[in-house]
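Support request, priority: normal
Reporter: lab tech (M.K.)
Component: structure prediction queue

Hi team, I submitted a job for Outer membrane receptor protein involved in Fe transport from Flavobacterium cauense R2A-7 yesterday, and the status page still shows it as pending. I've pasted the exact input below so you can check whether something in the sequence is tripping the parser. The sequence length should be 717 residues. Please let me know if I need to resubmit or if it's stuck on your end.
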Amino acid sequence: MKRIFLALLVIGQLSYGQAPKDTVNVKQLENVVVTASRSVTLKREVPVAISKITQKTINETKATAVYEIINKTPGVLMVNLGNEQHSMAIRQPMTTNSYYLYLEDGLPIRPMGIFNHNALLEINQFNLQSIEVVKGPVSSLYGPEAVGGAVNLISLKPSLQPEFKIGIQADQWGYKRFQAAGGTTIGKVGFHIAGLSSAQRDSWMTYSDYNKDNINARIDYNINTKTRLIGTVFYGKYNSNMSGSINENDFYNRTYKSQTDFAYRKSDALRSKLTFERDWNDNSHSSLTAFTRDNKLGQNPAYGIRWTQGQTTAKGEINTNNFKSYGVIGQHNQKFDFLSTSLVAGGLFDYSPVTYNAYQIDLKSNLNPGGQTVSSYEITAERPDIRLADYDAKIYNKAVFSQVSFKPINRVLVTLGGRYDNMSLDYTNNVDVSSGSKTYDQFTFKSGVNYNPFDFAGFYGNYAQGFAPPGLTSIFRAKPGTGGSTGVPAEFYYNLKSAEFDNYEVGGWLSFFGKKLNLEYSLYYMEGKNELLNIRQPDNSTDYQSAGRTRHKGIEFAVNYCPNEQFRIRMGGTTAQHTFIDFKVSDKPSDPVKNLNGFEMPFAPKWTGNSEVSYYPKWLPKLRTSVEWQFVSSWFQNQINTVKYDGYNVFNARIGYQWRGLECYVNAMNLTDKLYAYNVTRGNNATSAPTYTAAAPRTFVFGLQYHLKLNKKNNEQ
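Reply from support: The job had stalled in the queue. We restarted it manually and it finished. Here are the results:
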C-alpha cells in the first residue's frame, strides 16, 4: 500500500487547475436520485421510499466504518458485528439473510446466489460521493435479493481541476487508518484514485485485530461531447480476527474476552468494469458495461461453533468460498413527448463459477463455574475428512427489465416496471457424489403513482414484488444430524424454494417555511412466503425452512429543519412489526412449539431512530459540531418470544475545524460510555443462555485531513 499512496502524492503535482466558475445548487443535488429508476430523476417523481446521504454528510461523519453513515437513513439499522462486519435491518428484523442488494455504482457487488451479509466491509469509505438507500422491494429493476431494500454506494468521479486529499485517523483502542485520494481532468481524460489502509491492534475486545487495505481507480475518456468511456477497478484485502459474542456474565462485568483465539475471516476482492455511454440526443441515452469480479473468502467463523449446553466438547468449521464473475449489462433510456413518457429497458448476463468447501474442526469447551456457559474454546483437531459442504457450481444469471413512466394528467406521474430473472446452475456435490442442474426464475412487477398537487406537498403509492432465491451455501450444506461423523448419510436442501414478497406502500413529503422544514413519511405492508428462515438447533447449528409466511408492516419518517445557517436538525426513524403468520418449525411430538404462527420475529425492535443536531457558528465559520442520538427499542432474543433485550440509547458527538485546506476533528462515539450490545440472541430451549455482541465503550476518534485544490491558470491554491 505504500506504493499506492506514493502514487497518490504524485497526482497532486501532475498539473494545476482552477475551480469551475459555475456553482452547483446543493439543495437541487440532494433532490436528485438515480437508484430508484436507473437514471437521474427528481426524488419527488419516484414512487418509492428512497433516502440519499450526501457527500457533505459523509465528509462530516468521518466514519471508521460504513454503518456510522448508513444508520443516518430513516428506517435503516445496519448492525455492527465488529471490525466492519455487519448485518442489516431494512423492513426486516436484524438479519444476515439475503434480503438486501448491495450495489456499487448501480452494479451488484456480488452475483445472485452468492450473497454475503458482510459485503460492505469491502467498501472504500474514502471513495464515496453519496449513498442512496431504497427501502422496500426493487426486484423489478435490480433483481433478486432486493427485498428489504437496496444500498447503492456511488463512487467519486474525476474532478475537473486537480485535487488531492490525505488524512489519518486513530482512536485510543489501537485503531489507525491512513487514506489518500486525488485526481484531475487533462483534456479529454479524467482520472481519480482513492486508497486507505486501516489496522486494529490490542483493542478493548480481546482477539479483535484486523487489517484492511483498499484502492479504487477510475479513468473517464470523453471521446466527444456525446460519447464516453469509463473504466474502474477496485482491489481490497481484508484479514480479521473474529472475536464473536460473549456470555451474559462477561458482558455485564465488562469483561470483553473472546471465547476463541483462532476464529478469522480473510477476504480478497477484485472488481473491474468498463462502461461505454452514448447520448444519441437530448432524449436518448445508451450504456453498455462489461464487468468482472474475483473474490476469495476464507474463514474459521466464530458463529459456526456448535455446542450443546453443558458439554465439554464442541464442533466448528473452516470454510472457503471463491468465485469469479464475467458479465455484461446494457441499458437504454428514452424520452417521448407523448404524455412526457420516459422508458428504461435493458438486460444482464452474468457467468459466475464458484467453489465452496467446509470441513469440521473438533473443539474443547472450557466451561465457566456451573457448566452452563463457555469461557473459551480450544482446537483439538482439524478434520478435513469430515466435510460439511464441498461443491463446485457454474452460475448463469440472465435478466431483462423495463420500466416506463408517464404523466396522464398534470402533476400525476404513473410508473410501471417489470423484470424477468433466470438463475440456472450446473453443480457437482462432492459430498454425496452427485451432479445436476437447478433453475430459479421469477418475474417481478411494480406499479406506482406520484401526485404532487402543490409545490409544498406530494404523495405516492406503489405495489412491488420481490424475491430471493436460496443461497448456494444453504442448498449444499448437510442438514443437522446427517453426514460427517453422525453415521447418517448426508441430506441436503435441494428442495428449498425462492422467497417471494408482496409490498404495498403509501407515502409523501411536505415542505414548510420556505423549505426550511421538510417532512417525509412512508407506510408499508409486506407479506412474504417461502421465506428462508433459520431454525436454531440446541447445539447452535441451523436447520433451514422455506415453507413459512411472515408479515412486515411499519411507518418510516424523516424530519429535516434548518431554521438558519447555523443550525441543522435531523430526526428520523421507524416503527415496525415483524410477525410469523404461518411458520412450522417441528414435527416432533416432544417439542413444545411446533408452529410459530402469531409470534413476533426475533431481533425485530419495534422502534429504531437516528437524529442529529448540527451547529455551524457564524462567529467561527470553519467550525462544525454535532450531537447524534441512536435509539433501538427492545427485541425478542429467541423465536418463541420468552426473553427480551432492552435495546439501547447511544449518543455520539463530533467536532471539526478547518483552516485553509487542513481539517482537524474529534469524534466521541458512545459519549456516555453506555454498556450495550448490538445484538443478543439465545436458543429456544428453556435453559438456553444468551450471547451478546458487545458494543465498544466510549471511543475518541482523532483525525487530521488535508485537502489541496490547485489553480491551473494562476498556479496557486
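Helices lie at 2-11, 26-30, 55-61, 67-70, 139-142, 248-252, 472-475. The first strand starts at residue 32 and ends at 33. Let us know if anything else looks off. Ticket resolved.
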